[in-house]
Queue: 3 jobs
Job 1
Amino acid sequence: MGLTTYVEAIREGIREEMSTDERVFVLGEDVAVYGGAFKVTAGMLEEFGENRVIDTPISESGIVATAIGAAMMGMRPVAEMQFADFISCAFDQITNFAAKCRYRWGAGVPIVVRGPSGGGIHGGPFHSQNPEMYFVHTPGLKVVCPATAYDAKGLIKAAIRDPDPVIFFEHKFLYRRVKEELPGADYVVPLGEAEVRRAGSDISVITYGAMVFRALDAAKELEREGIDLEVIDLRSLLPWDRHTVLESVKKTNKVILLHEATRTGGFAGELAAVIAEEAFEHLDGPIRRITAPDTPVPYSPPMEEFFLPQVSDVVRVARELNDY
Amino acid sequence: MLYYMKLTRELEDRIERKLYRQGKILGGVYVGRGQEAITVGACMDLDGNDAICVSHRDMAAFLMRGVTPRQILAQYMGRKTGLTRGKDGNMHMGSLDHNLIAFISMLGDSIPIAAGVGLSYRLRGMKQVTVCFFGDGASSRGDWHEGLNMASVLKCPVVYVCNNNQYAYSTPLEQQMAVENVADRASAYGMPGDIVDGNDVVAVWQAVNRAVERARGGGGPSMVECKSFRMTGHSAHDDARYVPKELFEYWEKRDPITRLETSMRDLGDLTENKLAEMNGRVVAEVDEAVELADNDPYPDPEDCLTGVYFEG
């Protein structure tokens, strides 16, 4: 078996679900003939035909709403946002319509809204954002941020099978940069379960998305100094795996919270609150956050590099915490 | 048709003029007095499998689909027996069992939702259509425009029915749009836009039926604009003092129920006996429903924690 990239893994996951479940269809801007701006849906039109792979007008709100309407009638739409940044245009349909239907009148809305998020490719303020927290704050939604090809495939399949609306944030920096050998057999990665990417004893780094690799690189560097990082990949932010996080904190007693999204109102804040509430007596040092600063994502390469958390940031904070 | 118009009027009058004022309904109350012909005419010939995307002045759609007056009252009174089990109030309700799709307060959102409902029929080769109601105010929302365009481009079997009651809360039509008719915009989306007297139930029924036939036959979406008037404030707390009195007087003379009664009498289809019997039946049904709903239980407080996600 060859290696499968992150983008291929998502494509494979959607294809497999479309093959086994005729209710599943794909819609979005440029997803059919063009195969998607990042080629996630490449080849699907040829394989499944124009009734299963649908090009739409440039209408993010309309795309999500169309998916919601079809989902309520028993279908399983997978809606693409060409860039996750554009999901803001569909905010109302996602947070007010999709998220609240089940609670209000028992109508399930099994949609997946997926798209590329994240920086590192010089996309500037509107092609680099990490909008996950707008949705993590909305009961009724599920929010997923895979980091590896294995998880990307297993999570997209789980998202498509899920009876509730799932917002699926892919990381465009990872699309063709991470690859691995995937099992041939059908598998899913359950929503809401974290993964210990590297077991360690000194400091827990809790992270997700592309930052998982920054944490792992930092761990390699720190190994030489005798600092042993444990790296937790959350994979899902809503719901999230409190058990794995708290167990890790109780083991290492020191914690770094790392994410690419901006600082204020970022997921680290929620993690810090829960750790403080439930594992306070296990902490041997301050909870440290490493995040992007509270600015839009800048375009120019030196500014973007400064904006994004780097391996060196993790190394520096880990050393400080180790000495604490 | 007359029965459903009368039942709607009686039930809404009871809600707005009695239960709300008695303090038995604490939240918002939005009624469709004077606009009953639109919903009743549009839904009359629909198949039970056709979905209806309701808006907030379409109580008749619920009654016509078999939701009981008791369930509607329980919904208004926040009881466990309402369609949302107390999670939401007034007309903010739906039921997939009845193919009734709930709207949300961001009016206009249902327009692209209906496109999706219709798309699901077309993709599966089903013959169903969906009728989607909206008001003149909703037509100013971006989702309205995205939804009509989407429905048209994707050839969705949808009939968009506009209840143009000429006021969006306190804002009159001319401050809502710079064209004369909501239906003038239909051509911009490549669909027919019919305009009918919304207080003439037969005219609404005929126009919507034409549009339904077109949609069922694969001809795509249409719009039917029904000109009417909101004979109330936006909601029960609003005395509508911003509406000139002459307008109410003008439209009172064109009341859709009175008009239908008159034309049925003229045609010899309605005797005084039959009318008295129907009036009595409607009042008795609502009386009974109020009694039952008022004795229905409230939800338990902690029920608010349930049903956010699928629970098996």
Note: The CA atoms of residues 20 and 26 of chain B lie 7 Å apart.
Job 2
Amino acid sequence: MAGIRVAGVGLTDFGESPERTGRDLFAEAGLAAIDDSGVDPEDVEELFYGNFMGEFAERQGHQGPLMAEAVGLDVPATRFETACASSGAAVREAVKDVRSGEADVVLVGGAERMTNIGTAGATEGLAMAADDLYEVRAGVTFPGAYALMARAYFQEYGGSPEDLANVAVKNHEHALPNDHAQYRSEITVEEALDAPPVATPLGLYDACPISDGASALVLVSEAYADSHGIDAPVAIAGTGQGGDRLALADREYLARTPAADDAAREAYADAGVDHDDVDFAEVHDCFTIAEVLALESLGFYERGEAVGAARRGETTRSGELPINLSGGLKAKGHPVGATGAGQIAEITRLFRGDHPRSGAVPDAETAVAHNAGGTVASAVVHVLEVAT
Amino acid sequence: MSASTDNARDEGYDDLLDAVADGEGYYLECPAGHGWLPPRRVCSECGARELAEEPLPESGTVETHTTIAVPTPRLADDAPFVTALADFGPVRLTGQLREIDPEDVETGLSVGVDVGESVTTGDRVLVFRPR
């Protein structure tokens, strides 16, 4: 089985750029990744691309070939859609492709244009990741679904809105030096608790923003990196994916995300590591409660224990297990289709030492990216390592 | 006339709402007792394909709830409203909880199910009311 290296990464700024088309966003990220990699563009053999709501936001389907063209590639190109885990799923397929020997060099990433359709439009678009018949028609929104999970969590395990506010405060603080982040301003627990409600018990500061943006990675086989003198010190050592029923009402658990448990178990086994080996992680904090659920699914905390992790300082940049040093979806932003590959771009830079928060993890060897779709009916987990 | 239409019914879903509106709600149950809402051809818990219509219990219990302040455009004029998940024994239902002050909603509340209308669109909505 071929080892996989991250040869290059590219990110647009995440934020509000309603006038920019998806193809322009992805072109910026894709070209940046190719430039960062030092790989000859002629060597790229395939594009794996994640996007969730392109038809709804831009009236644009069939985005795979459009995005290949946008970065100047004449290669087979396929779009992957698993809601907010779309580019995580694209990375997983890219990893499998290179491992199988089908390709030595691939481009993978994602893009989303969202702010052009406004808050109401984005709310409608994001809700399409839920069950239309039985959830959306009854009023479930994306924040609403996580609010239902948050209250179920409080009911089953305890925890409070103040605990969740600490997650938001932490991730805002982490994002301060990140040039790509949408929010680079500190907030306080009091401000978070006083913010207007979106869907009780979640308020405005519990929610990630609506974002435009793109991300891209050049992945190469270890053999290609060696034979072409490509400096690629970060490896994708493990990949895993899990699934669950789409509607919350049809699930066994309302306060757990078993799809992420399964994805983590598979990714750890694939990499030959345990959760104890993980030095830091980027997790899918579309809402503050989502970070809590992620930390428990990844095995870092027992059920009911992760809700206080940020408050106790364990997951801050100076804590034992820094979580979302990029600022996470909460502060860096969440251009849905770009998020999964974007997490891996951030981890790669944190390892390489060229991320403004690299100083928080100077000796790190193992990290995890956790990317979730909808209310975690899809989950993709990757283990990254500093290659030896 | 073409069979193609902009306003086709959603078989299964609309049939269930018709039945709930008539006070004859049902769910689909497999031989092992796993419950589901239509349309459904196979039990996603055990794989059984023999699903039988069983009468929906008259009351359910609120398991979790949220007051939605930022709705989708389809429910723009309905907000704020309470959406809840309620345990009806073998199935859980998702519905709008009405006829109660949102501040007074608690988990464990006993509710019945009915069909209401969206203020915004007039579309049908599965609704709960305290019992």
Note: Chain B is about 5% helix and 35% strand.
Job 3
Amino acid sequence: MNGTRGALSEMNGRVDNAFSAAIDRIHVAHGVGRMALLLVVTFGFFAVLRPEIFLNSVNLQNIGIAAPEIGVLALALMLAMLTGGIDLSVVSIANGAAITVSSIYTHFATTQGADAAASMTPLVLLAGLAVGALLGAVNGVLISMVGITPILATLGTMQVFNGLALVWTGGVTISGAPAALRSLGSTAVAGVPVLALVLLVAAALVAVLVNRTPIGRKVQLQGANPVASTYSGISKRATLMTTYVTSGLLAGVAGLMFLARNPSASADYGSSYVLLVIVIVVLGGTNPNGGSATVLGVLLAAVTLQVVSSGFTALRLSAYEYAIAQGVILVGVMVLDQVKFRRRRGRRAMSGTAAPEPATSAPTH
Amino acid sequence: MTARLARLRGPNNEGLLLAVIVLVVIAMSLASPAFFTAGTFFALVRSSMVPLIFALGVLLVLISGGVDVSFPAIAIFAAYTTVTLFMDGSGGTALVIFAVAMLIGAGLGMLNGVVIARFRLPTLIVTLGTQGIFKGVLIAYIGSAYISAGDLPSAITEASDRHLVDVAGGGYLHFLIVPVVVIVLLVAAMLKWTVFGRSIYAIGGDTEAARRVGIRVVRTQVWLYMLVGALAAFGGVVYVILGKNANPQSLVGTELDIIAAVVLGGASIFGGRGSVGGTVLGVVLVQLINNNLVLVGIPSTWQRAAVGVLLLLGVSIQAFAATRGRSRPVAVQKEVAA
Amino acid sequence: MTVTATPVLEVRDIVKTYGGVHALDGVSLSLAPGEVHCLAGENGSGKSTLIKIISGVERADSGAITIDGTTHGHLTPNEAIRSGVQVIYQDFSLFPNLSAAENIAMLSELAERRVLSSRSRIRAAAQRVVDDLGLSLDLDAEVERLSVADRQLIAICRALVNDAKVLIMDEPTTALTYSEVQRLFVIVRRLQQRGVAIVFVSHKLDEVLAISQRLTVLRNGRVVESGDASGYTRRAVSKAMTGRDVSETRLVNDVAPDAPQLLEVEHLSRAGGFDDVSFALRAGEILGITGLLGSGRSEIAEAVFGINPADSGRILVQGKPRRIASIHDAVDAGIGYVPEDRLTQGLFLDIPIAENMVAASLDAYRTRFGLLDRRRIRRSIADLFGRLRIQAPNSSAVVRSLSGGNAQRVVLAKWLDRKPAILLLNGPTVGVDVGSKEEIVTILREQAAAGMGIVVISDDIPELVSCCHRILIIHDGHVVAELAGDDIDADEIQRRMAA
């Protein structure tokens, strides 16, 4: 009697051990460890190949200034992907926030003078963030209340937000940004650009939100299994709204960072960012089907891609070659993950037979 | 599973779509007397041709349960590459140009298909990646120059000027409408009357079940993406012929408009559902709005927002219908979930 | 009936290992035409692996499969189909978006390597099978719109469209009502007369003994029993499956006479589900709700838990009327629910055990700053691991790696951590091995003794008899009987359920 149970539990134990060992390996390989290695390798590669250009302090500064806005957008998308969704509208939202800030500021500056406008700066910036959160809320309503699939909802809102930005700006690039914001874009603290600090702070906040707060854990559970999370009393509406509003807010922050770097805004800024941001998030170890993501992985992926970008520039390669590299990295990483997953599955098949079989009941008589 | 099934139940709202189109036509006719003319109609047909071909490809992929955003990149890659191949005037009838471009397109499509089917990866993300690769390779290694009418192969410029019908006042019906209509009919027939077509629906309905009844899923998907690549290439050449120029920077960026049109046409983003008829209507509606907003006095900057709103409305209706369907047969649905 | 014809399927010495663990260890099986052969065994005994190998989905490490005289080293799915082996999967594997006719005939269209697909040919082929079996089915309806029983029939028709010689039915009765099961048996006998050999995989011993001529029991990847079904009793098969005698004795603690009412359900109705259902539950009490599938037993639980809220009636929790319009409301009111389908509804399979355990109680761990108190979480998890005797190497293993019994304990742990006043359990031991079954029942008794109110919805009558203070019997959406104390008797329940 005990013998059987002992054997069963021993078998279970063996399966469990093999499996959890595999999982542990994947976890390390999947996010942070792999990205850190990749970052070191790419950095070393370009540093060795073109040290005079690549290791130049101006170039390093540039990486520090260009990477942050993309990093913040990636965090915004990562949140959506964590719930098993996607947010294609992040770049449109960022542009919306940038256009809002730029035009409100310009309006004040022309009607009430530069000083009055400068004193309004905090309010103007808040307006930009508010626009980000509001547009995020539009996504949230469409996804959590109307019930549209995230990919279609954000595909539509991306068009709408972008279209409205076109209408607002008349399709031209508008210029003007609060002086304080502009100086933020060119300041560095102890050699670290302020924009990079903004990214670090944003990343830390997102990490705390996701890992250390009840709502953050619920967002992750929602992504891992939406049905089970509903059956655990987790409100789908609340988690999705939180996710998309936060995502919109982060996109708003990214919009302000656009302006800080370059005091002009247009509906079409960063049109290539959508692909780039998805590459970063997937490369950073986020599961496109939801349920797992690491902030540090995404952060490292953002920096790595910026290193690749400036490395390509140092090697005199074009933006199109960078686009090729992005595509190859994206597809390559997913294929590698899949191959690894299949190898793991061989081991898992055993636990498949030992795992509970889904069954409903029927009458015995 | 239940939710997915219920959402799949969204009506194939062709009828509704037709009604909307009629309404839009009536509204536009009332707003502008210049609207209801043969010229406007032919212009609508002309501007719908390329999107329609692309939309067929998008439809096929959606039915199989995927989303493809790389087709504009494939289209311009294939068309531009073919044009540069035949630019030195080394012969090449229009037929040859189409054939070569479609071969190139099928090759690029095969790349998509192999990666997607062999490794079972999310199609949207894979095709986002390959889109970047295709466009990047085209501009970095094949050519980045704008090719104007004077430098195009003569077969193409000749084709540009072939009209089927001319009307007074400058309107005309382009002869390429004939092959376009033939392709539309062929795709519709394929989906309805071939085992390949039914297999695409089956894969989109339940991939695992398809595997179990003996459909070779990987092979079918690879063929499918090759076909979609060839369709995209065909559309690309039509685009070059109609525009009388070849610009490697063009087309990419229009993918979302096309997807919007197909989804409006009732195809389900979850796979297994969609029809050629609905797709045609979806494309016509989007083009109707894109072409004629200005005519009725709305600035052209509103185009993108208008299409976006249309898409959101269309999918909202589907979502609402699905929610209503979900709350009906409770007992049955619960059992399905098990 | 004994069958002596040459076997249509013969499986010899199949060995299959996964990562060093023997899933099948020298399994042999032979099947004569027209024989119904039952394959029984607990979860993890190797049944599913054996089916996968016979249908060519998985490849054996060694051993041979002979179908109709041809021996295959390793079989591919298409070879298996062409040799006449068909599997009816538990989930039916149908295409929800296609018509019934197309679902049935797709297989033959593919097997004949056709290029063009003809609606009339498909319709005719499907009609032929349907007529053959004497069924009435709407062949033009989309499968998505059909009932579960109809879907099962379609799956059977599909398996037969290509003249199957061997038909494997994997737990075919799980989703069927009593009368539907009887109808299925009629079809099985008709197929048998036509010489189709049937492998019937089930864990329901009564069904097994009713329908099969021969019986093979697997345990831990080995054949432990094989022979004529008539030579076995329910108890003998159960013993063979588990390796021990299972006691089915009644053990119920007394409920304190002054125990407070925790749940009062008054005149609850839901269109198409149940009508005018009332009952009450006291602290420390275990209430059983049983009935045939489709009787409304599950729907009542789902209404109380807010999944599909009731149309009318009142629910009082701890004396206070509560409006329960969503799961969220129910959880807020202090109700927990262990669902029937724990894999999709109860568990986060790719998330560590520890996180599954606190999934329903995250808000309780909020510190003053709005963050999670991780030290308290760790303490709770260690405590639950011990209390529920969960067998896993550590709490950071993912739930997917657990056996049925351990996985169910994780679902229980999730709710115990939330400390609901009332816990509803729907089919708490379905798909759980016999050892764990007993322990889960013991855990329920312990929780009840500690003051929780427990409702068990199940059709496992021995289990209900063994632990419930009272049992409600549901028939056609109504409570038709309430048994308590010494009136609780398995035969009586059976009789009332079918009435």
Note: The beta strands of chain A are 174-175, 188-189, 192-193, 264-265.
